[in-house]
Amino acid sequence: MTRLAGLDLRRGRYVAHSSSLTVDGMWIANGTFLLLDEPTDDRELGTAVSRMLDASRTGVPTPDLRNGPSPFAPVLDALGLRSYATYAKGTRHVDVERDADVVLVSPTRNGGAREGFVELTEHTVRLTTPGDEELGEALRAALDRSS
Predict the structure, then answer these.
(1) CB within 10 Å: which end of the chain, N or C, has fewer?
(2) How far is residue 147's CA from residue 116's CA, in Å, rounded to a whole number?
(3) Contact 123, 28 (CB under 8 A)
(4) Is this model's pTM higher than 0.90 or not?
(5) Pairwise CA distance, residues 22 & 57, whole Å
(6) HSE toward the beta carbon, residue 68, CA cutoff 13 A
(7) How far apart are CA 59 and CA 2, in angstroms?
(8) DSSP-assigned states of every residue in the chain
(9) Contact, 105 vs 124, CB < 8 A?
(10) CA-CA distance, 131 to 108, in Å (whole number)?
(11) pLDDT tens digits, residue range 44-84?
């Protein structure tokens, strides 16, 4: 089963968050997240993202995105922000996907509110059964490549 998480760096804070796959085949934030302040070591980053991957599910109901709250609303509320566009401004993001023992860590380019975070697949790193410290090192390297 594929599991999906993300790690963001915004204004000196890391936001690790989990996504789940809806019955309609769309990945959405599932409300599970952790906030970590700098300085944070590689092991802490890896542990946080591993927990977010563990919280990822499939077959969740598809929310009403037009009339309901944003699936990312819990993160925005925790940070005291009103919109995802405000959140995304200046944020660096890394996609993390786990399928069995393989973990893919992909840096992204910040395309703003219009494009979102665009995966830089040519810089994706493949890890096999990484420990938390190894995952954290890959996450930090991917954040450095993200723009």
Answers:
(1) N
(2) 12
(3) no
(4) yes
(5) 9
(6) 8
(7) 12
(8) -EEEEEEEEETTEEEEEEEEEETTS-EEEEEEEEEEESS--HHHHHHHHHHHHHH--EEEPPP-TTTS--TTHHHHHHHT-S-HHHHHTT-EEEEEEEETTEEEEEEEEE-HHHH-EEE-GGG-EEEES--HHHHHHHHHHHHHH--
(9) yes
(10) 23
(11) 999 999 999 999 999 999 998 888 888 999 999 999 999 98
Residue type, 28: I
CA distance 59 to 119: 24
Find where tokens 């077959």 sit.
59
